[in-house]
């Protein structure tokens, strides 16, 4: 009942936001120059990734480091499906592509869907060893998983072209795709969060024993959250591949996961609004802080401009946020909570 | 494969396994008292190796002196890490602790990338470590024998501390119940600091040996090794020091033997520990020596 009331009260606001977002997507695509559009594309993809990463990390409270692995899976699956056979034969230098790799062809939309499904299935199979024990191991298994994907991609050149990666991927990603899917992802994830499954996820986060005592199948709930995250991360990976037009195993390092972690922590763990705000802040921050990677001297210490200074700053921000402002920008609040009259929190 | 090659691989596996074991002990001890996967532990190993490089290549100190200095500094770094980053979060949800740990790990990796450069540096291995012995065909270096011997003696030392001293008793008590330990008049935070110091010291020893065996150091060297050492700790039974050593040897041996039998699968070498980790989690999550830590907590 309570949730229903909120929905009625804010349905108009929601609708307005969605329409504005759709309008902005269209407006940006037709008016802005190529560079700006590219940045907005990037932001849209990262919103997809951050919002879905937040579902497992923030909403369900299971610390996971998986995005780079699933983004890689999504990117490879999509690329294999949308790059045509001639282009593949031309660029697979290490080994000829397998017959089935050449035969697999699909439209971009189907390719993205397929990328998501494959990621979700992989997540499902990872869930069994990990969630049978308490969530602790999830982080380390998912961290290792990123390495495994890289090792698999390097060692199977007949599928992935090894360390050379796949190039000349058709540049399908435009703002209609990225923006549209970003809006869809946010709506889908919000709907999950406000469903009974979402409430169960929050229950698991707040007190797993109590949740079990209430009859929640915690294994099922964690698996659901993890697979859903993986699905959207796979789709996001596909979009990323079609935006960058070339992918290689080195692209999907732990750095990607770390960026997303910063985004959701800074935005406020568990809040979708926070994840979106965090994406915008961090992406802008990464652009503006490029000067940090230039050579410079600081209090007599010379740095030779190795890319890394930005990362030092970002990891410091992460630690400081965790130590002094654990709530991040929004805490667990969503946009609607800010409109609400002052009521007892939680 | 003939007997000689087999013996040779055994020597290699023993050496590799003891390095994993040294690092795994730190993981298992911290997990034992705080239930925290200390992601920065692998990077402490990297710091140890880098300190070794600095003292030997830049200050031209001898290996034993280098070892003492780097191990001490690494131990202090471990204690500092606990004081600054983990201690304020004792009462916080565990996810905050894990996020901080990954933040520290990333911070150490990138700080060293910025100040030491991303490329790997050649580690000046002392000559006597590289001397080669030939026992009826089985060839090994001094280093590959020193490493297991030092590991095993350190293990004995740790076991002595854990089971024969008051501090050890406090550490074991902590892994049961922190609150009660505090009630007994033991300063839990001090004991936790000691655990971090001990673990980091062992990781630094592991890092130095790693640099001697594979003579190069680079800022990201701790990531994969740390991951494998954690797998070793889980295989042996997380929370158990003996288990960590057994797990380390299992991972070391299987990795070496795996490559020896199926050289064509060499590219998958790094995936092996991970697959083993998954299997252990599936079929025996408590590992070989482990007890169910969730039960002993309450």
Question: How is this fold's topology laid out?
Answer:
The complex is a heterodimer of chains A (346) and B (298).
Chain A: H1 2-31, H2 34-59, H3 67-82, H4 85-91, H5 99-103, H6 108-132, H7 136-155, H8 157-160, H9 175-193, H10 196-206, H11 208-213, H12 218-244, H13 254-267, H14 272-288, E1 296-298, E2 301-303, H15 309-324, H16 335-339
Antiparallel strand pairs in A: 1-2
Chain B: H1 3-34, H2 41-58, H3 63-86, H4 94-116, E1 121-122, H5 127-130, E2 132-135, E3 138-141, H6 142-164, H7 166-174, H8 178-183, H9 188-213, E4 216-217, H10 221-236, H11 241-261, H12 272-283, H13 293-296
Antiparallel strand pairs in B: 1-4, 2-3
Helix pairs in contact in B: 1-6, 1-9, 1-10, 1-11, 2-3, 2-4, 2-9, 2-10, 3-9, 6-7, 6-9, 7-9, 10-11, 10-12
Give the gist of this structure.
The complex is a heterodimer of chains A (346) and B (298). By secondary structure, chain A is mostly helical. In chain A, 72% of the residues lie in helices and 2% in strands.
Please provide a written account of the structure.
Chain A has 346 residues and is mainly alpha-helical. In chain A, 72% of the residues lie in helices and 2% in strands. Chain A has one domain (2-259). Chain A is built from 16 helices and two strands. The radius of gyration of chain A is 21 Å and the shape is globular. Chain B has 298 residues and is mainly alpha-helical. Helix content of chain B is 73%, strand content 4%. Chain B has 13 helices and four strands. In chain B, strand 2 (132-135) and strand 3 (138-141) form a beta hairpin. The longest helix of chain B has 32 residues, at 3-34. At the A-B interface, helix 6, helix 7, helix 13 and helix 15 of A face helix 4, helix 10 and helix 12 of B.
């Amino acid at each position: 009942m309570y949730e229903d009331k909120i929905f009625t009260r804010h349905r108009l606001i929601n609708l307005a936001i969605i329409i504005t977002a759709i309008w902005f997507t269209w407006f940006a695509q037709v008016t802005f120059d190529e560079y700006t559009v590219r940045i907005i594309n990037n932001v849209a993809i990262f919103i997809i990734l951050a919002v879905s990463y937040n579902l497992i990390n923030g909403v369900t409270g299971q610390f996971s480091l998986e995005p780079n692995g699933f983004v890689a899976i999504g990117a490879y699956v999509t690329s294999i499906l949308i790059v045509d056979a001639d282009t593949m034969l031309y660029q697979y230098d290490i080994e000829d592509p397998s017959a089935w790799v050449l035969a697999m062809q699909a439209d971009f939309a189907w390719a993205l869907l397929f990328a998501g499904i494959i990621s979700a299935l992989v997540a499902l199979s990872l869930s069994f060893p990990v969630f049978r024990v308490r969530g602790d191991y999830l982080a380390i298994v998912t961290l290792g998983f990123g390495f495994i994907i890289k090792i698999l991609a390097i060692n199977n050149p007949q599928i992935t072209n090894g360390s050379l990666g796949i190039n000349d991927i058709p540049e399908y990603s435009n703002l209609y795709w990225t923006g549209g899917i970003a809006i869809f992802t946010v709506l889908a994830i919000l709907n999950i969060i406000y469903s009974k499954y979402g409430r169960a996820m929050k229950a698991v986060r707040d007190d797993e024993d109590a949740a079990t005592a209430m009859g929640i199948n915690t294994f099922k709930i964690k698996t659901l959250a993890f697979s859903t995250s993986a699905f959207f991360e796979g789709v996001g990976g596909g979009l990323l591949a079609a935006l960058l037009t070339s992918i290689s195993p080195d692209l999907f390092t732990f750095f990607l996961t770390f960026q997303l972690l910063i985004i959701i922590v800074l935005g406020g763990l568990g809040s979708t609004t926070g994840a979106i705000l965090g994406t915008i802040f961090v992406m802008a921050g990464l652009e503006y802080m490029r000067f940090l990677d230039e050579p410079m001297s600081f209090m007599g210490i010379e740095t030779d401009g190795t890319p890394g200074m930005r990362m030092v700053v970002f990891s410091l921000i992460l630690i400081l946020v965790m130590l002094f402002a654990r709530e991040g920008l929004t805490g667990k609040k969503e946009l609607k909570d800010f409109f609400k009259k002052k009521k007892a929190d939680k | 494969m003939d007997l000689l090659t087999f013996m040779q691989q055994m020597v290699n596996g023993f050496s590799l396994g003891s390095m994993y074991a040294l690092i795994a002990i730190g993981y298992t001890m911290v997990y034992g008292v705080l239930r925290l996967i200390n992601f920065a532990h692998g990077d402490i190993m990297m710091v140890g190796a880098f300190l070794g490089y600095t003292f030997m290549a830049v200050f031209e100190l001898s290996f034993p002196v280098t070892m003492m200095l780097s191990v001490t500094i690494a131990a202090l770094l471990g204690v500092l890490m606990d004081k600054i980053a983990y201690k304020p979060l004792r009462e916080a949800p565990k996810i905050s602790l894990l996020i901080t740990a990954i933040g520290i790990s990333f911070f150490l990796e990138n700080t060293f990338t910025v100040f030491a450069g991303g490329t790997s540096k050649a580690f000046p291995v002392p000559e006597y470590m590289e001397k080669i012995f030939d026992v009826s065909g089985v060839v090994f270096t001094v280093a590959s024998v020193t490493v297991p011997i030092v590991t095993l003696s350190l293990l004995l030392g740790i076991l002595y501390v854990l089971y024969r001293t008051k501090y050890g008793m406090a550490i074991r008590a902590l892994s049961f119940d922190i609150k009660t330990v505090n009630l007994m008049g033991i300063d839990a935070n001090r004991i936790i600091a000691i655990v971090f110091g001990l673990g980091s010291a062992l990781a630094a020893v592991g890092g130095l040996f790693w640099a001697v065996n594979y003579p190069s150091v680079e800022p990201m060297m701790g990531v994969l090794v740390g991951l494998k050492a954690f797998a070793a700790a889980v295989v042996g039974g997380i929370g158990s020091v003996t288990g960590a050593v057994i797990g380390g040897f299992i991972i070391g041996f299987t990795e070496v033997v795996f490559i020896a039998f199926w050289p064509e699968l060499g590219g998958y070498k790094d995936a092996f520990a991970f697959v083993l980790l998954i299997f252990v989690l599936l079929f025996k999550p408590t590992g070989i020596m482990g007890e169910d830590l969730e039960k002993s907590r309450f």
